[in-house]
Amino acid sequence: MSDDAMYAPKYVRIIETLRRRIEDGTYPxxxxxxxxxxxxxxxxxxxxxVVRALNEMQLLGELQREHGRGTFVKARPxxxxxxxxxxxxxxxxxxxxxxxxxxxxTGRRPAPNQVALLLGLAESAPIHLRRYVGLYDSxxxxxxxxxxxxxxxxxxxxxxxxxxxxxxxxxxxxxxKERLSRVRERLRARRxxxxxxxxxxxxxxxxxxxxxxxxxxxxxxxxxxxxxxLPGSLHVLEDSYTL
Length: 243
Known about the structure:
The protein is of the alpha+beta class. It has helices at residues 10-23, 36-43, 47-59, 87-92, 113-119, 150-156, 168-175, 194-200, and strands at 8-9, 63-66, 70-73, 101-110, 126-136, 139-148, 180-191, 207-217, 222-231, 237-238. Mean pLDDT is 86; it is low at 1-7. GO terms for molecular function: DNA binding; DNA-binding transcription factor activity.
C-alpha cells in the first residue's frame, strides 16, 4: 500500500484515473473527457466529488472546462500531479480566485492548543489565521484553515484580505531563507463543529474528515499549519492493494 493511496478521498481516485488515461493516450490532449454524470456513475461518486476532481485538474492547467460544451484535456499531468492525493499539500499549490474560494476571516488570533504545539509556540500565542471555504462549481466542498507565525504571514503576504493570486507554496518559498522540505499530515474522522456546519452547510450530525498538516522548512521550523475539513457525505476514503 503506498503512502499516497492511503486515506485518499474518492475525488483523488478520479484524478489519478483521468491522469493515467491522459498519459496512456486514452484521452489525448484536445480530446473531450466523459461528462460529470458519466464519471459519477463510473466511480460511484456524488456530483460535488466529480466537480472537485475536475476543478482541481483545471486549476493545475490539465483540463479546460467550457460551459455548455464539456471538459477537454488541455495538457499532460504536471510534475506536481501526485500532490493532490494529499489534501493539505494540494492547498499549497492552489491559486485562489473569487470563484474558487470564499474568504471567511483573516487576521491575528490566539493559537489553538494543537496548532500552538505544532508551531512550537505557547498556547494562545498570537498567530495569523486565514480561513476560507473552497467552492467547486459553487458547491461548498471544504473548509481550509491556514495558521502561520506572525512573521511568516507578514513576509509571505498571507495576510491579504482577498484571494491569494499566487499559490501559498510559492509565497512561502519566496519569503523564507530556508527551502520548504516536509509536510506531515494526519487524518481523522470526527463530528463537525457548529462553525464548520455553518460554513459547509452540513446537516445535523453529519461527520467530517479533518486533514491536519504541518509544513516544515529545511531548518526544521514549522512555518505553517493547514487544516482541510471535508464533508463526510462528499468525500470517501478509498485504497486498493494486492492480496
